[in-house]
Amino acid sequence: MPSLGKFNQLTIEEICHEGAYLNGAELGEVFISAHELTPDDHEGQSISVFVYLDSQGVATATRKKPYAQLGDFTLLRVKEINSTGAFVDIGLDKDLLVPFNEQIPKMEQGRSYVIHFYLDKASGRMCGSSKLNKFLDKTPATYESLQEVDLIIAGKTDLGYKAIVNQAHWGIIYHDQVFKLLFPGQVFKGFVRKVREDNKLDLLLEKPGMAKIDTLSNQILSELEKNNGFLALGDKSDPVLIKKTFSTSKANYKKAIGGLYKQGLIDIEATSIKLKKAL
């Protein structure tokens, strides 16, 4: 069944001068503008389109890819605020409404917020909400230790950074586990440290163990090759400089260079390392 706020495969029923009408089943006829059609499009053809309601409430299709689909959490910028609420740029001709009662904090024009894209059951409208708690942790958090997951940074707390895990659960990256710049809306892979009793997750930016060290070792060797075999970061160097260069902890860096030293690849000084022989 075709769904609003998502990509659907719809069949072209009729092509006219203004565009084409697609079979939207329960949604009725879905219109797509002529400028979105190609010379190869023909009646009876199935095409992939995103379906939304235009300003008149008419089901409309586009081949443009929006910044989010129904059910997604993503960072969106406020384009306008009026008496109805805030309108955020979702990458389509029509902006997404975030009603005032779905805003935490109150939104400001020009600023960006992590927003959940949902369908309002009462009105049938597609809307956004920054009240993220009401859409997360609705299902049991069945994750394995060190399982790789998709993360979206949602904000900073006294303990660390709150992250949305696999578009479904809350997690936290504690300050002592943060070794690179994090900001709201940032998307990347992370790892589950453990599932807490409250169904929330403790997270890691790095997977511990030799697999991570091996990857870091290759990065160090690559940097050495770029810098004529010398790098001004040794086992006594400032952790901030190590973090800035390799987005990792000093402990991991020391393990990596220690492994390279044992392999006879580098020499280590207090504040520098250098290639021992040509690689």
Automatic annotation (TrEMBL):
It comes from Pseudoalteromonas ulvae. Residues 219-275 form the Conserved virulence factor B-like winged helix domain. This is GntR family transcriptional regulator. Residues 4-62 form the Conserved virulence factor B first S1 domain. Belongs to the CvfB family. Pfam families: S1_2 (PF13509), WHD_CvfB (PF17783). InterPro entries: CvfB_fam, CvfB_S1_st, CvfB_WH, NA-bd_OB-fold, WH-like_DNA-bd_sf. The lineage of its organism: Bacteria, Pseudomonadati, Pseudomonadota, Gammaproteobacteria, Alteromonadales. PANTHER family: CONSERVED VIRULENCE FACTOR B.
